[in-house]
Specification:
By secondary structure, this protein is an alpha/beta fold. It has one domain. Helices cover 28% and strands 20% of the residues. It has five helices and nine strands, in the order βαβββββαβααβαβ. A hairpin with a 2-residue loop joins strand 3 and strand 4. Helix 3 crosses helix 4. It is globular and about 40 Å long.
Length: 193
């Protein structure tokens, strides 16, 4: 297991299955999950679709890197995986505020994201709050915008996009536990360290 930073900022478009990836990473030793509460849980199908604190517009916590630790009962309990769709707007500032931070980007094609978000509950999702998007067309536009920003950030940082696999976890975290239950061929991840 590699030494983890205090914070990992984590972002992806709605419907990218980024929350499932976050939950997989949070199973590794050294991860802080003291942001989890009953109120911060949304389950769909057989998944804990959303669990823990989410940051962003209309959500419990604003997408402000300066307040991230307030979501955690014990900020000293390990590496915090900080989730927000809006971090794609903040990457440069985050890296200035937290020079040793890691940023993980999750990409999935727009229509696949849009379809899965609706299948996972769409506007019936009660945590976190997606009311800001108002309707399905706005959600698709937001997904397209976020994905475009993610690809641009990856390009700017010379990032290598890869499938989320046990090998990726081992290469980037040094964790050899087989935490991944399913590999999705349309989902790519990259990490900026």
């Amino acid at each position: 297991m590699f030494d983890l930073p205090r914070h990992i900022f984590f972002t992806g478009a709605p419907g990218s299955r980024w929350s499932g990836i976050a939950q997989t990473l949070e199973q590794m030793p050294g991860m802080n999950t003291t942001d989890r509460t009953k109120e911060r849980t949304y389950t769909h199908h057989s998944y804990n679709g959303h669990i823990g604190a989410y940051f962003g517009k209309e959500m419990e916590f604003n997408a402000d890197p300066k307040i991230i630790e307030t979501a955690y009962e014990d900020p000293e309990a390990g590496c915090m995986l900080i989730k927000s769709h809006q971090w794609c707007d903040w990457v440069a500032r985050i890296r200035i505020l937290y020079p040793d931070v890691w940023v993980i980007l999750v990409y999935r094609p727009d229509l696949a994201c849009h379809t899965w978000w609706h299948e996972a509950g769409g506007f019936q999702i009660d945590y976190p709050n997606y009311s800001e998007y108002k309707n399905s067309a706005n959600m698709l536009y937001a997904i397209q915008e976020i994905n475009s920003k993610l690809l641009g950030i990856g390009l700017t940082h010379g990032s290598k996009w890869e499938h989320f696999t046990p090998t990726w976890i081992e290469e980037n975290f040094g964790c050899t536990d087989n935490l991944i239950k399913e590999v999705f061929p349309d989902i790519l991840v990259t990490i900026i360290k």
